[in-house]
């Protein structure tokens, strides 16, 4: 993961003309615009011929017409992180950052992610898929309180409710199903909330330092993620060294189990009583805003925001590159 050094320098000119995909049509458009604006400025500061490209305003076919050589995907959520844009770029033959079509699609679907992790013997909290408020109430009876109710294919805690009582189940289901017809209920794990970025692909992938998140009243919601400064992000995490290393190893297994590549960020809860880590989800197009966590963790290793963007861009590839 060397950046612009004598051992393994990145040839900026060889990266060619770069489109930074930002905005898009998902519920996370606002955050994507912030991420993409930051990435664009960073790449330009490193001498990259980078240009903003909003798929909500321009047809993706224009990428080919306008001679773009590679794409940095700074889109979040559906129509950007779920395999759809990746599939279009595969057809256009333009290398892109992040995971391929299948890994992006699976990682966006929290149910499919859990099924694969379970099949691989990786720990993830108990869950139920629900199709109605009545099924949500039944899940609450089975999983206990508190319980998380959330859309299966959304991010940034959009549509998520922490349910404490049976009476909250109806409104929680209504909120989640308003974002996605697929809704899941998940056992709540009380303890430390941490997130771990990954850079690289396959055997070369490495986990960056663990970030421990301390949000007001334990409520790490959309507002606290992006628009306030009252959430604490602890790097170093303050966890025992052996515990941090074990969590990093677990996240690498989770990353590889889904066949992710390039970069990602996994969210994990550590049970306060047992100290067992539980995998929640993995984000294959992580945020790159001023409040985002991948840049924060990278800085702890000496990797600046600008060099992080350049490093990720250099990993752009295709599932089906020409032989």
UniProtKB/TrEMBL annotation:
Q: Where in the cell is it found?
A: Cytoplasm
What are the record's GO terms for cellular component? cytosol
Is Ligase set as a keyword in this record? yes
Swiss-Prot/TrEMBL keywords: ATP-binding, Cell shape, Cell wall biogenesis/degradation, Cytoplasm, Ligase, Magnesium, Manganese, Metal-binding, Nucleotide-binding, Peptidoglycan synthesis
Catalyses which reaction(s)? 2 D-alanine + ATP = D-alanyl-D-alanine + ADP + phosphate + H(+)
Detail which positions bind Mg(2+) 2: 281, 283
- An annotated Gene Ontology molecular function: metal ion binding
- Database matches in InterPro entries: ATP-grasp, ATP_grasp_subdomain_1, D-Ala_lig_Van_CS, D_ala_D_ala, Dala_Dala_lig_C, Dala_Dala_lig_N, PreATP-grasp_dom_sf
EC top class named in words: ligase
What PROSITE patterns does its record include? Answer: ATP_GRASP, DALA_DALA_LIGASE_1, DALA_DALA_LIGASE_2
Q: What SUPFAM superfamilies does the record tag this protein with?
A: Glutathione synthetase ATP-binding domain-like, PreATP-grasp domain
Q: Which family does it belong to?
A: Belongs to the D-alanine--D-alanine ligase family.
- Tell me what this protein is called: D-alanine--D-alanine ligase
Native organism is Hydrogenophaga pseudoflava (Pseudomonas carboxydoflava)
From which lineage does this chain's organism come?
Bacteria, Pseudomonadati, Pseudomonadota, Betaproteobacteria, Burkholderiales
